[in-house]
Amino acid sequence: MDSEELPDISPLYFFDASLKMQQLKKGKFTDAHLLPSFENLNFSEQFTDVYAAWSDESLHFKFNVKKPFEESAYPDFLRKDSIELFLHTRANSVSRYMNKFSHHFLIFPTEVNGIYGMEITKFRGEDQHDLCLPQAISVKVDLAKNSYLVELELPKAILYGYDPADSKELRMDYRIHRYQNEPQVFYFPPNLIAEHHLVLWPKVELV
Q1: I want to staple 53 with a disulfide (CB 3.0 to 4.6 A). Which of 7, 17, 24, 114 is the partner?
Q2: pLDDT band, very low/low/confident/very high, at 11 (cuts 50, 70, 90)
Q3: Reported confidence tier of residue 192, pLDDT bands at 50, 70, 90
Q4: DSSP collapsed to 3 states, 99-112
Q5: CATH number of 17-25+41-206: 3.40.1280.10, 2.40.50.100, 2.60.40.1190, 2.40.50.840?
């Protein structure tokens, strides 16, 4: 077979990414909560600083997007301003497809159809949970001229399987979309479908 005919194999398949997520104290993010970049592996342009923290009752995220907001939409949210967040609340209970421990959230930096966020998890089979109501997702947005800030809180009640007292490991990934341009990704490059590779999502230890 000619080398030009070989499929494109990402180096990400050969790494087992892991990181630590610090606990949120006094309700404030610090530099210790800043997530690392895997841009040398996935070749994704980094235009957003992403912070993540945990508490007994919630998972917390902050997205400092260093570009101006332009447009959001649904269901056509790709190549528009939006954030996809993928979570699997039991790191060692993964399967090939999204199951009851899997969550796929879509967040907007402005109101779209009256909401700022929603769960859009697509399951296969009966191993699933009920999708949460948009009102259960806490989103705070601060729009500036050349940037915007999104703070997200996901309460334990909408995260099936999330219980730091019982399990302090989960898996996660994200995609941050921007208007008419390529997204920033956490681990998987844009040409791979994160939902089909749960076992390769970075493992996160709550510390």
Answers
A1: 24
A2: low
A3: low
A4: CCCEEEEEEEEEEE
A5: 2.60.40.1190
